[in-house]
Fold this sequence. Notes:
It is a single chain. The chain has 21 helices and 18 strands. Helix content is 41%, strand content 14%. The model is unreliable at 1-43 (pLDDT under 50). InterPro entries: Bact_solute-bd_prot1 (IPR050490), SBP (IPR006059). Keywords: Cell membrane, Lipoprotein, Membrane, Palmitate, Signal.
Amino acid sequence: MAKLRWKRTEKRIGAAMLTVALLTVAAGCGGGGATTSDGKDSQAAAPSGPVKLKLAYDNGNTIPSTSPDSNEALKYLQTKLGVQFELNINSWEIYKEKIRVQIASGDVPDAFAWRTMDDFIVGMIKAGEIVPLDDYIDKYPNLKKQKDLYITKYQNKIYAITNVRNPVASGDMPMIRKDWLDSLGLQPPKTTEELYNVAKAFATGDPDKNGKKDTIGIQIGYANNAFIGVSGLQQPFGIQDKWVKQGDKYVPNFATPQFKEWLEWMQKAFKDGLIDPDFAVTDGRTAESKVVNKGQSGILFQYASRMNDFEDNYKKSNPNGKLVPFEPVKGPYGRGATGRVNYGGLFITKKAAKDPAKMQKLMEWLDFGASPEGEQFNLYGVEGVHYTKKDGNNEVNAEATKRDMPGAFLWTLPVGKTEEVFVGKKNSAEAQKLVSDGNLMLEKFLKLPAPLDFAFSPTRSKYNAEADAFINGSIVKVIMGSLSVNDWDGIVKQWYDRFEGSKWMDEIAQAAGSGDTK
Protein backbone atom coordinates (compact mmCIF):
# COMPACT_ATOMS: atom_id res chain seq x y z
CA MET A 1 0.00 0.00 0.00
CA ALA A 2 1.76 3.02 -1.23
CA LYS A 3 2.03 5.70 1.39
CA LEU A 4 5.13 7.47 0.50
CA ARG A 5 5.12 10.86 -1.09
CA TRP A 6 5.18 11.76 -4.79
CA LYS A 7 1.85 10.20 -5.76
CA ARG A 8 0.70 12.80 -8.32
CA THR A 9 -0.28 11.42 -11.71
CA GLU A 10 2.18 12.17 -14.51
CA LYS A 11 0.93 13.56 -17.82
CA ARG A 12 1.24 11.04 -20.61
CA ILE A 13 4.24 11.05 -22.88
CA GLY A 14 3.85 8.34 -25.49
CA ALA A 15 5.92 5.20 -25.77
CA ALA A 16 7.27 6.54 -29.03
CA MET A 17 8.85 9.47 -27.18
CA LEU A 18 10.66 7.05 -24.86
CA THR A 19 11.95 5.05 -27.79
CA VAL A 20 13.20 8.19 -29.51
CA ALA A 21 14.80 9.30 -26.25
CA LEU A 22 16.74 6.09 -25.81
CA LEU A 23 17.85 5.90 -29.43
CA THR A 24 18.91 9.53 -29.41
CA VAL A 25 20.77 9.14 -26.13
CA ALA A 26 22.58 6.07 -27.43
CA ALA A 27 23.61 7.91 -30.58
CA GLY A 28 24.64 11.04 -28.71
CA CYS A 29 26.66 9.28 -26.03
CA GLY A 30 28.78 7.10 -28.28
CA GLY A 31 30.67 4.03 -27.21
CA GLY A 32 32.21 2.72 -24.02
CA GLY A 33 33.21 5.00 -21.15
CA ALA A 34 36.57 5.48 -19.51
CA THR A 35 35.79 3.42 -16.43
CA THR A 36 37.18 0.08 -15.36
CA SER A 37 35.06 -3.03 -15.13
CA ASP A 38 34.57 -2.47 -11.39
CA GLY A 39 33.34 1.10 -11.92
CA LYS A 40 36.47 2.84 -10.66
CA ASP A 41 37.81 5.91 -12.41
CA SER A 42 40.64 5.43 -14.85
CA GLN A 43 43.63 7.80 -14.79
CA ALA A 44 43.11 11.15 -16.46
CA ALA A 45 45.07 14.37 -16.69
CA ALA A 46 44.00 17.05 -14.21
CA PRO A 47 41.65 19.55 -15.87
CA SER A 48 43.16 22.94 -16.70
CA GLY A 49 40.12 24.84 -15.44
CA PRO A 50 36.71 24.31 -13.79
CA VAL A 51 35.02 21.08 -14.80
CA LYS A 52 31.70 21.70 -16.50
CA LEU A 53 28.78 19.73 -15.06
CA LYS A 54 25.32 19.71 -16.57
CA LEU A 55 22.74 18.89 -13.88
CA ALA A 56 18.96 18.64 -13.89
CA TYR A 57 16.74 18.20 -10.83
CA ASP A 58 13.56 19.50 -9.19
CA ASN A 59 13.55 21.80 -6.19
CA GLY A 60 10.17 22.89 -4.85
CA ASN A 61 8.33 25.83 -6.34
CA THR A 62 10.84 28.63 -5.74
CA ILE A 63 13.97 28.67 -7.89
CA PRO A 64 16.85 31.08 -7.20
CA SER A 65 19.11 32.66 -9.81
CA THR A 66 21.36 30.01 -11.37
CA SER A 67 23.97 32.55 -12.49
CA PRO A 68 27.07 32.85 -10.27
CA ASP A 69 27.23 36.53 -11.22
CA SER A 70 24.02 37.15 -9.27
CA ASN A 71 24.13 34.34 -6.70
CA GLU A 72 26.87 34.37 -4.06
CA ALA A 73 26.02 30.88 -2.80
CA LEU A 74 26.43 29.34 -6.24
CA LYS A 75 29.60 31.34 -6.89
CA TYR A 76 31.15 30.11 -3.63
CA LEU A 77 30.23 26.46 -4.25
CA GLN A 78 31.59 26.44 -7.79
CA THR A 79 34.88 27.97 -6.67
CA LYS A 80 35.22 25.57 -3.74
CA LEU A 81 34.62 22.48 -5.87
CA GLY A 82 36.38 23.64 -9.04
CA VAL A 83 33.31 23.22 -11.20
CA GLN A 84 31.07 25.20 -13.51
CA PHE A 85 27.44 24.17 -13.21
CA GLU A 86 24.92 24.29 -16.02
CA LEU A 87 21.69 23.86 -14.09
CA ASN A 88 18.17 22.90 -15.09
CA ILE A 89 16.22 23.34 -11.84
CA ASN A 90 12.42 23.48 -11.86
CA SER A 91 9.44 22.58 -9.74
CA TRP A 92 8.51 18.92 -10.13
CA GLU A 93 5.40 19.51 -12.23
CA ILE A 94 7.46 21.42 -14.79
CA TYR A 95 10.66 19.44 -14.42
CA LYS A 96 9.35 15.94 -15.10
CA GLU A 97 8.19 16.85 -18.59
CA LYS A 98 11.12 19.10 -19.46
CA ILE A 99 13.79 16.52 -18.60
CA ARG A 100 12.19 13.82 -20.75
CA VAL A 101 11.93 16.21 -23.69
CA GLN A 102 15.53 17.34 -23.08
CA ILE A 103 16.83 13.77 -23.13
CA ALA A 104 14.69 12.90 -26.15
CA SER A 105 16.32 15.78 -28.05
CA GLY A 106 19.79 14.37 -27.35
CA ASP A 107 20.68 17.07 -24.82
CA VAL A 108 21.72 14.60 -22.14
CA PRO A 109 22.79 15.99 -18.73
CA ASP A 110 25.65 14.49 -16.76
CA ALA A 111 23.23 13.72 -13.94
CA PHE A 112 19.48 14.12 -13.53
CA ALA A 113 16.85 13.37 -10.92
CA TRP A 114 13.88 11.04 -11.27
CA ARG A 115 11.51 9.95 -8.56
CA THR A 116 10.87 6.31 -9.33
CA MET A 117 12.14 3.24 -11.13
CA ASP A 118 9.82 3.09 -14.11
CA ASP A 119 9.92 2.15 -17.80
CA PHE A 120 11.73 5.38 -18.63
CA ILE A 121 14.61 4.76 -16.22
CA VAL A 122 14.81 0.99 -16.75
CA GLY A 123 14.90 1.55 -20.49
CA MET A 124 17.87 3.86 -20.10
CA ILE A 125 19.62 1.39 -17.78
CA LYS A 126 19.14 -1.46 -20.25
CA ALA A 127 20.47 0.77 -23.03
CA GLY A 128 23.57 1.40 -20.92
CA GLU A 129 22.91 5.13 -20.64
CA ILE A 130 22.79 5.22 -16.81
CA VAL A 131 25.61 3.77 -14.71
CA PRO A 132 25.57 1.83 -11.41
CA LEU A 133 27.13 3.71 -8.51
CA ASP A 134 28.06 1.18 -5.81
CA ASP A 135 31.83 1.32 -6.32
CA TYR A 136 31.88 5.08 -6.66
CA ILE A 137 29.91 5.51 -3.43
CA ASP A 138 32.36 3.32 -1.52
CA LYS A 139 35.19 5.76 -2.28
CA TYR A 140 33.44 8.76 -0.71
CA PRO A 141 33.09 8.56 3.08
CA ASN A 142 30.01 10.73 3.57
CA LEU A 143 28.07 8.92 0.86
CA LYS A 144 29.22 5.53 2.10
CA LYS A 145 27.68 6.28 5.50
CA GLN A 146 24.29 6.63 3.82
CA LYS A 147 24.59 3.68 1.46
CA ASP A 148 22.02 1.49 3.25
CA LEU A 149 19.40 4.19 2.58
CA TYR A 150 19.97 4.20 -1.19
CA ILE A 151 17.27 1.68 -2.05
CA THR A 152 16.81 2.58 -5.72
CA LYS A 153 18.31 -0.55 -7.23
CA TYR A 154 18.21 -2.62 -10.39
CA GLN A 155 19.76 -6.10 -10.58
CA ASN A 156 21.09 -5.56 -7.08
CA LYS A 157 23.05 -2.45 -8.03
CA ILE A 158 22.47 1.09 -6.79
CA TYR A 159 21.53 3.43 -9.61
CA ALA A 160 20.55 6.61 -7.79
CA ILE A 161 21.82 8.79 -4.97
CA THR A 162 18.81 9.51 -2.81
CA ASN A 163 18.38 12.74 -0.89
CA VAL A 164 18.07 10.85 2.38
CA ARG A 165 16.39 11.69 5.64
CA ASN A 166 16.53 10.11 9.07
CA PRO A 167 14.15 7.12 8.84
CA VAL A 168 12.67 8.12 12.20
CA ALA A 169 10.77 10.80 10.24
CA SER A 170 8.12 8.10 10.07
CA GLY A 171 4.38 8.38 9.68
CA ASP A 172 3.96 5.58 12.23
CA MET A 173 4.57 7.57 15.43
CA PRO A 174 1.88 6.45 17.92
CA MET A 175 0.37 9.46 19.73
CA ILE A 176 -2.33 9.62 22.39
CA ARG A 177 -4.22 12.18 24.45
CA LYS A 178 -2.52 11.99 27.85
CA ASP A 179 -5.18 14.23 29.43
CA TRP A 180 -7.85 11.77 28.30
CA LEU A 181 -5.93 8.85 29.79
CA ASP A 182 -5.67 10.73 33.09
CA SER A 183 -9.36 11.66 32.97
CA LEU A 184 -10.34 7.99 32.68
CA GLY A 185 -7.60 6.59 34.94
CA LEU A 186 -5.92 4.68 32.10
CA GLN A 187 -2.36 3.98 30.99
CA PRO A 188 -0.96 4.07 27.44
CA PRO A 189 -1.74 0.76 25.69
CA LYS A 190 1.01 -1.82 25.21
CA THR A 191 -0.84 -4.48 23.21
CA THR A 192 -3.49 -4.56 20.50
CA GLU A 193 -5.99 -5.74 23.12
CA GLU A 194 -5.17 -2.79 25.37
CA LEU A 195 -5.28 -0.45 22.35
CA TYR A 196 -8.78 -1.68 21.62
CA ASN A 197 -9.92 -1.13 25.21
CA VAL A 198 -8.41 2.35 25.49
CA ALA A 199 -9.88 3.41 22.15
CA LYS A 200 -13.28 2.14 23.26
CA ALA A 201 -13.01 4.12 26.49
CA PHE A 202 -12.10 7.23 24.54
CA ALA A 203 -15.08 6.79 22.21
CA THR A 204 -17.68 5.96 24.87
CA GLY A 205 -16.38 7.19 28.24
CA ASP A 206 -16.66 10.98 27.80
CA PRO A 207 -12.92 11.61 28.31
CA ASP A 208 -13.29 15.39 27.83
CA LYS A 209 -16.08 15.49 30.48
CA ASN A 210 -18.42 17.66 28.41
CA GLY A 211 -21.39 15.34 28.83
CA LYS A 212 -21.57 14.61 25.11
CA LYS A 213 -20.75 11.56 23.02
CA ASP A 214 -18.55 13.47 20.59
CA THR A 215 -15.11 11.87 20.89
CA ILE A 216 -13.31 9.47 18.54
CA GLY A 217 -11.03 6.65 19.69
CA ILE A 218 -8.74 6.08 16.70
CA GLN A 219 -8.29 8.58 13.89
CA ILE A 220 -7.61 7.33 10.38
CA GLY A 221 -8.50 8.68 6.95
CA TYR A 222 -8.71 7.67 3.31
CA ALA A 223 -8.16 9.75 0.18
CA ASN A 224 -6.69 9.37 -3.31
CA ASN A 225 -6.65 5.56 -3.01
CA ALA A 226 -4.43 5.67 0.08
CA PHE A 227 -4.97 5.35 3.83
CA ILE A 228 -3.85 7.88 6.42
CA GLY A 229 -2.68 6.68 9.83
CA VAL A 230 -3.09 2.96 9.11
CA SER A 231 0.46 1.59 8.77
CA GLY A 232 1.10 1.82 12.51
CA LEU A 233 -2.00 -0.31 13.07
CA GLN A 234 -0.77 -2.95 10.63
CA GLN A 235 2.68 -3.50 12.10
CA PRO A 236 1.41 -5.52 15.13
CA PHE A 237 -0.12 -7.93 12.63
CA GLY A 238 3.17 -8.39 10.79
CA ILE A 239 2.11 -6.26 7.82
CA GLN A 240 4.77 -4.00 6.36
CA ASP A 241 6.52 -5.29 3.25
CA LYS A 242 4.36 -5.30 0.15
CA TRP A 243 5.62 -8.71 -0.96
CA VAL A 244 5.86 -11.68 1.40
CA LYS A 245 7.74 -14.89 0.68
CA GLN A 246 5.64 -18.03 0.93
CA GLY A 247 7.64 -21.12 -0.03
CA ASP A 248 9.36 -20.27 -3.30
CA LYS A 249 6.83 -17.57 -4.19
CA TYR A 250 6.28 -13.94 -3.30
CA VAL A 251 2.67 -12.94 -2.69
CA PRO A 252 1.19 -9.51 -2.02
CA ASN A 253 0.78 -8.82 1.70
CA PHE A 254 -3.01 -8.57 1.34
CA ALA A 255 -3.06 -12.24 0.26
CA THR A 256 -1.68 -13.45 3.62
CA PRO A 257 -3.59 -14.87 6.62
CA GLN A 258 -2.15 -12.06 8.78
CA PHE A 259 -3.87 -9.49 6.63
CA LYS A 260 -7.25 -11.11 7.25
CA GLU A 261 -6.57 -11.03 10.99
CA TRP A 262 -5.91 -7.30 10.73
CA LEU A 263 -9.13 -6.82 8.76
CA GLU A 264 -11.08 -8.67 11.46
CA TRP A 265 -9.62 -6.40 14.15
CA MET A 266 -10.36 -3.25 12.15
CA GLN A 267 -13.90 -4.32 11.26
CA LYS A 268 -14.73 -5.06 14.89
CA ALA A 269 -13.18 -1.76 16.01
CA PHE A 270 -15.25 0.16 13.47
CA LYS A 271 -18.45 -1.71 14.35
CA ASP A 272 -17.93 -0.93 18.03
CA GLY A 273 -17.43 2.77 17.29
CA LEU A 274 -13.71 3.01 18.04
CA ILE A 275 -12.70 4.35 14.61
CA ASP A 276 -13.79 7.65 13.08
CA PRO A 277 -17.12 6.76 11.43
CA ASP A 278 -16.35 9.21 8.61
CA PHE A 279 -12.83 7.95 7.88
CA ALA A 280 -13.71 6.84 4.32
CA VAL A 281 -14.47 10.45 3.31
CA THR A 282 -11.76 12.07 5.42
CA ASP A 283 -8.58 13.19 3.69
CA GLY A 284 -5.24 13.58 5.46
CA ARG A 285 -5.58 17.22 6.40
CA THR A 286 -9.08 16.73 7.76
CA ALA A 287 -8.04 13.65 9.72
CA GLU A 288 -5.16 15.54 11.29
CA SER A 289 -7.41 18.51 12.02
CA LYS A 290 -9.74 16.34 14.08
CA VAL A 291 -6.78 15.77 16.41
CA VAL A 292 -4.69 18.94 16.33
CA ASN A 293 -7.39 21.58 15.77
CA LYS A 294 -10.66 20.19 17.10
CA GLY A 295 -9.33 17.78 19.71
CA GLN A 296 -11.98 15.20 18.78
CA SER A 297 -9.75 12.13 18.47
CA GLY A 298 -7.62 10.43 21.07
CA ILE A 299 -5.22 8.12 19.18
CA LEU A 300 -3.30 8.88 16.00
CA PHE A 301 -0.49 7.16 14.08
CA GLN A 302 1.20 9.93 12.12
CA TYR A 303 4.28 12.15 11.94
CA ALA A 304 5.71 13.38 15.24
CA SER A 305 5.27 16.95 14.00
CA ARG A 306 1.56 16.60 14.76
CA MET A 307 2.51 17.22 18.40
CA ASN A 308 3.81 20.64 17.34
CA ASP A 309 0.57 21.26 15.43
CA PHE A 310 -1.46 20.27 18.49
CA GLU A 311 0.34 22.86 20.61
CA ASP A 312 0.01 25.50 17.88
CA ASN A 313 -3.74 24.97 17.56
CA TYR A 314 -5.93 23.03 20.00
CA LYS A 315 -3.77 23.61 23.07
CA LYS A 316 -3.97 27.41 22.71
CA SER A 317 -7.64 27.38 23.72
CA ASN A 318 -7.45 24.15 25.74
CA PRO A 319 -4.24 24.44 27.79
CA ASN A 320 -4.86 21.17 29.65
CA GLY A 321 -4.80 19.18 26.42
CA LYS A 322 -1.74 17.02 25.94
CA LEU A 323 -0.81 14.86 22.93
CA VAL A 324 2.14 12.55 23.70
CA PRO A 325 3.99 9.66 22.03
CA PHE A 326 3.74 6.07 23.20
CA GLU A 327 5.53 2.88 22.20
CA PRO A 328 4.23 0.82 19.25
CA VAL A 329 1.82 -1.78 20.60
CA LYS A 330 2.59 -5.48 20.50
CA GLY A 331 0.30 -7.70 18.47
CA PRO A 332 0.14 -11.36 17.44
CA TYR A 333 3.10 -10.87 15.05
CA GLY A 334 5.28 -8.39 16.93
CA ARG A 335 5.44 -4.62 16.73
CA GLY A 336 7.32 -1.90 14.95
CA ALA A 337 7.21 1.19 12.78
CA THR A 338 8.10 1.69 9.14
CA GLY A 339 11.15 3.88 8.63
CA ARG A 340 10.64 6.72 6.19
CA VAL A 341 13.04 6.25 3.28
CA ASN A 342 13.01 8.23 0.05
CA TYR A 343 13.22 6.47 -3.30
CA GLY A 344 14.28 7.63 -6.71
CA GLY A 345 17.14 10.10 -6.72
CA LEU A 346 19.94 11.46 -8.87
CA PHE A 347 20.99 9.22 -11.77
CA ILE A 348 24.39 9.61 -13.47
CA THR A 349 24.66 9.09 -17.20
CA LYS A 350 27.31 7.32 -19.27
CA LYS A 351 28.15 10.72 -20.71
CA ALA A 352 29.61 11.73 -17.34
CA ALA A 353 30.98 8.32 -16.38
CA LYS A 354 33.21 8.08 -19.45
CA ASP A 355 34.94 11.34 -18.38
CA PRO A 356 36.89 10.65 -15.14
CA ALA A 357 37.21 14.36 -14.34
CA LYS A 358 33.45 14.86 -14.58
CA MET A 359 32.74 11.75 -12.56
CA GLN A 360 35.16 12.77 -9.83
CA LYS A 361 33.66 16.25 -9.52
CA LEU A 362 30.11 14.89 -9.51
CA MET A 363 30.94 12.57 -6.65
CA GLU A 364 32.83 15.30 -4.78
CA TRP A 365 29.78 17.56 -5.08
CA LEU A 366 27.50 14.82 -3.77
CA ASP A 367 29.91 13.91 -0.97
CA PHE A 368 30.23 17.56 0.07
CA GLY A 369 26.46 17.87 0.42
CA ALA A 370 26.42 14.82 2.70
CA SER A 371 29.21 16.22 4.90
CA PRO A 372 28.90 18.37 8.04
CA GLU A 373 30.40 21.24 6.04
CA GLY A 374 27.74 20.76 3.37
CA GLU A 375 25.04 20.82 6.03
CA GLN A 376 26.46 24.11 7.33
CA PHE A 377 26.36 25.55 3.80
CA ASN A 378 22.78 24.33 3.35
CA LEU A 379 21.64 25.92 6.60
CA TYR A 380 23.60 29.15 6.59
CA GLY A 381 25.24 29.70 3.20
CA VAL A 382 28.49 31.67 2.92
CA GLU A 383 30.09 33.33 5.91
CA GLY A 384 30.24 37.10 5.48
CA VAL A 385 27.43 37.01 2.92
CA HIS A 386 24.56 35.00 4.32
CA TYR A 387 25.64 34.94 7.96
CA THR A 388 28.23 36.27 10.38
CA LYS A 389 29.64 34.70 13.52
CA LYS A 390 28.99 36.56 16.77
CA ASP A 391 29.60 35.27 20.29
CA GLY A 392 29.76 31.70 19.01
CA ASN A 393 26.45 31.94 17.14
CA ASN A 394 25.53 32.46 13.49
CA GLU A 395 23.61 35.63 12.78
CA VAL A 396 21.72 35.05 9.53
CA ASN A 397 21.16 37.65 6.85
CA ALA A 398 17.63 36.53 6.06
CA GLU A 399 17.26 38.65 2.93
CA ALA A 400 20.46 37.34 1.31
CA THR A 401 19.69 33.74 2.29
CA LYS A 402 16.16 33.94 0.89
CA ARG A 403 17.52 35.44 -2.34
CA ASP A 404 20.35 32.97 -2.97
CA MET A 405 18.84 29.78 -1.44
CA PRO A 406 22.16 27.93 -0.81
CA GLY A 407 20.43 24.60 -0.28
CA ALA A 408 19.05 24.68 -3.84
CA PHE A 409 22.54 23.88 -5.13
CA LEU A 410 22.99 20.68 -3.12
CA TRP A 411 21.37 17.33 -3.79
CA THR A 412 22.59 15.46 -0.71
CA LEU A 413 22.56 16.20 3.02
CA PRO A 414 23.72 14.30 6.10
CA VAL A 415 21.17 12.13 7.88
CA GLY A 416 19.55 14.36 10.50
CA LYS A 417 20.04 13.70 14.21
CA THR A 418 17.26 11.56 15.64
CA GLU A 419 16.63 13.84 18.59
CA GLU A 420 16.16 16.83 16.25
CA VAL A 421 13.78 15.39 13.65
CA PHE A 422 10.53 17.40 13.55
CA VAL A 423 11.56 19.39 16.63
CA GLY A 424 10.03 22.85 16.19
CA LYS A 425 12.34 25.46 17.72
CA LYS A 426 9.44 27.91 17.85
CA ASN A 427 7.49 25.53 20.07
CA SER A 428 7.69 25.31 23.84
CA ALA A 429 10.44 23.38 25.59
CA GLU A 430 7.80 20.85 26.62
CA ALA A 431 6.70 20.23 23.03
CA GLN A 432 10.30 19.99 21.81
CA LYS A 433 11.04 17.39 24.46
CA LEU A 434 7.95 15.36 23.58
CA VAL A 435 8.97 15.16 19.93
CA SER A 436 12.63 14.48 20.71
CA ASP A 437 11.85 11.78 23.29
CA GLY A 438 9.32 10.26 20.91
CA ASN A 439 11.92 10.03 18.15
CA LEU A 440 14.44 8.32 20.42
CA MET A 441 11.74 5.90 21.55
CA LEU A 442 10.53 5.11 18.03
CA GLU A 443 14.03 4.61 16.65
CA LYS A 444 14.30 1.34 18.61
CA PHE A 445 11.33 -0.09 16.71
CA LEU A 446 12.09 1.12 13.18
CA LYS A 447 12.07 -1.28 10.26
CA LEU A 448 13.24 -0.12 6.85
CA PRO A 449 11.05 -0.90 3.84
CA ALA A 450 12.29 -3.89 1.86
CA PRO A 451 13.85 -2.85 -1.47
CA LEU A 452 11.64 -5.49 -3.06
CA ASP A 453 8.65 -3.29 -2.21
CA PHE A 454 9.74 -1.09 -5.09
CA ALA A 455 11.07 -3.71 -7.49
CA PHE A 456 10.54 -2.82 -11.12
CA SER A 457 7.76 -4.84 -12.70
CA PRO A 458 6.25 -4.08 -16.11
CA THR A 459 2.90 -5.39 -14.86
CA ARG A 460 3.12 -3.10 -11.84
CA SER A 461 3.76 -0.16 -14.15
CA LYS A 462 0.72 -1.13 -16.19
CA TYR A 463 -1.78 -1.58 -13.35
CA ASN A 464 -0.40 -0.02 -10.16
CA ALA A 465 -2.84 2.86 -9.62
CA GLU A 466 -5.91 0.85 -10.67
CA ALA A 467 -4.84 -2.17 -8.60
CA ASP A 468 -4.24 -0.03 -5.50
CA ALA A 469 -7.64 1.57 -5.89
CA PHE A 470 -9.32 -1.84 -6.14
CA ILE A 471 -7.62 -3.32 -3.06
CA ASN A 472 -7.83 -0.22 -0.89
CA GLY A 473 -11.43 0.40 -1.84
CA SER A 474 -12.21 -3.19 -0.89
CA ILE A 475 -10.44 -2.74 2.46
CA VAL A 476 -12.68 0.24 3.18
CA LYS A 477 -15.75 -1.88 2.47
CA VAL A 478 -14.56 -4.67 4.78
CA ILE A 479 -13.73 -2.28 7.62
CA MET A 480 -17.15 -0.64 7.32
CA GLY A 481 -18.87 -4.02 7.19
CA SER A 482 -20.39 -3.90 3.70
CA LEU A 483 -18.12 -6.83 2.85
CA SER A 484 -17.39 -9.74 5.16
CA VAL A 485 -13.87 -10.78 6.01
CA ASN A 486 -14.93 -14.14 4.58
CA ASP A 487 -15.28 -12.38 1.22
CA TRP A 488 -11.63 -11.40 1.20
CA ASP A 489 -10.31 -14.48 -0.55
CA GLY A 490 -12.66 -13.66 -3.42
CA ILE A 491 -11.34 -10.09 -3.52
CA VAL A 492 -7.79 -11.40 -3.76
CA LYS A 493 -8.81 -13.75 -6.59
CA GLN A 494 -10.36 -10.81 -8.45
CA TRP A 495 -7.08 -8.93 -8.06
CA TYR A 496 -5.17 -11.83 -9.62
CA ASP A 497 -7.67 -12.11 -12.46
CA ARG A 498 -8.06 -8.40 -13.25
CA PHE A 499 -4.44 -7.28 -12.90
CA GLU A 500 -2.46 -10.27 -14.20
CA GLY A 501 -1.51 -11.13 -10.65
CA SER A 502 0.34 -14.34 -11.52
CA LYS A 503 2.48 -12.52 -14.05
CA TRP A 504 3.09 -9.74 -11.54
CA MET A 505 4.17 -12.32 -8.95
CA ASP A 506 6.52 -14.02 -11.41
CA GLU A 507 8.20 -10.68 -12.13
CA ILE A 508 8.65 -10.01 -8.42
CA ALA A 509 10.05 -13.50 -7.86
CA GLN A 510 12.46 -12.99 -10.74
CA ALA A 511 13.47 -9.64 -9.26
CA ALA A 512 14.06 -11.28 -5.88
CA GLY A 513 16.07 -14.08 -7.43
CA SER A 514 18.35 -11.73 -9.34
CA GLY A 515 18.48 -9.10 -6.64
CA ASP A 516 16.60 -6.83 -9.06
CA THR A 517 15.07 -4.40 -6.63
CA LYS A 518 14.33 -0.74 -6.71
